[in-house]
Write a structure and sequence with these properties.
The chain is globular and about 45 Å long. Helix 1 packs across helix 7 (139-163) and helix 3 packs antiparallel against helix 4 (73-83). It starts with a helix and ends in an 11-residue tail after the last helix. Residues 299-316 have low confidence and may be disordered. It is mainly α. The longest helix is centred in the C-terminal third of the chain and has 43 residues, at 263-305. The chain has one domain (3-294): Na+/H+ antiporter like fold (Up-down Bundle), CATH 1.20.1530. It is 80% helix and 0% strand.
């Protein structure tokens, strides 16, 4: 298989994932419930926007200018892309796995994804200039693929849910499954096509630098819920998981369109996503274990009080 045909497969499966994932997200959204959640948790949503589009980009840029200043400029561009792409598509799945609040995770990814459509075209050229990377892209070069392949399918999915509600549940299931399959194909073809670059990049300490991404996100997620003094563990973990990993959909669009001629951008984005998901998944499994322990402790204590008078159930 030639390199050009591999690039076509990588880009094709990448674009298909973004379209299907965005359309599938729209199919799963209950607009009324989403608005109610956003209003009732507006402080979390507002602070999540500040953290994801001000604090995290500044931390990423500062990290690239200091600790990770020696990595190649093209890889720094991938880090800048990641810094401005918020709203991890699989956050509801991670929240469910962690036994956290899935509705909060869904609300946050919609708010952050829509905000990414605005923030990415405006902020990315500024971020690239800040880290003095050799690559350039205009606002329109960044904006048009995000609008066409991410925002429009999301709106069409929402419209489909309103027009044909009976067809929505089965279609949503299959859309999500095919989207994940496309992402796996994209990842595998990327590894095959650019394997030598992945090996060469190992010597630049870029993999070590990539570890900073999810820990910056997790730390900022912790700051979010701690600042607002969120007590509900399910809400805390949902917000932390959503903030921890960046949004792979617009990241794929950046490597496919404005930076398609620079394979190191593709390599850096792939490394960041892979490392980020593995790190955050480890935390999610720990949260799940903690939630399971709490549930089993509550369950085993219940039968002891059954049949007792109310005034004795809380004794000693």
């Amino acid at each position: 298989m030639t390199h050009s045909s591999q690039s076509v497969l990588i880009n094709g499966f990448g674009v298909l994932f973004v379209i299907l994932n965005s359309f599938g997200l729209g199919l799963r959204l209950q607009i009324g419930k989403l608005l109610a959640q956003a209003i009732s948790h507006w402080k979390i949503a507002a602070l999540a926007l500040v953290i994801n589009f001000v604090i995290i980009p500044l931390l990423f840029i500062g990290y690239l200018l200091t600790i990770a200043s020696s990595i190649p400029g093209e890889i720094k561009v991938g880090f800048c892309v990641a810094a401005l792409c918020a709203g991890m598509p699989f956050a509801p799945l991670l929240a469910r796995l962690a036994k956290a609040d899935v509705s909060i995770a869904t609300t946050l990814i919609v708010v952050l994804t829509v905000a990414t459509v605005i923030a990415l075209p405006i902020g990315l050229p500024l971020a690239i200039d800040a880290v003095d990377a050799p690559l350039k892209a205009s606002v329109w070069d960044i904006a048009w693929p995000v609008l066409l392949f991410l925002l429009i399918p999301l709106a069409l999915g929402c419209a489909f849910r309103v027009w044909w509600p009976d067809l929505t549940p089965p279609l949503a299931q299959w859309t999500v499954r095919v989207a994940i399959l496309c992402l796996l194909f994209n990842l595998n073809f990327t590894l095959v096509a650019y394997w030598s670059l992945f090996v060469d990049t190992w010597g630049t300490e870029s993999y070590i630098a990539a570890l900073a991404g999810p820990f910056i996100g997790l730390g900022c997620g912790y700051i979010l819920v701690s600042t607002l003094r969120v007590k509900d563990v399910g809400v805390r973990h949902a917000a932390e998981a959503t903030t921890a990993v960046r949004n792979i959909a617009p990241m794929l669009l950046m490597m496919i369109f404005p930076f398609r001629a620079d394979p190191l951008v593709t390599v850096s984005i792939t490394i960041l996503n892979t490392v980020g998901i593995v790190v955050v998944l480890s935390f999610v499994l720990m949260w799940r274990r903690g939630a399971s322990s709490s549930d089993s402790g509550a369950t085993t204590s219940e039968p002891e009080s059954e049949g007792l008078p109310r005034h004795l159930r809380n004794d000693g």
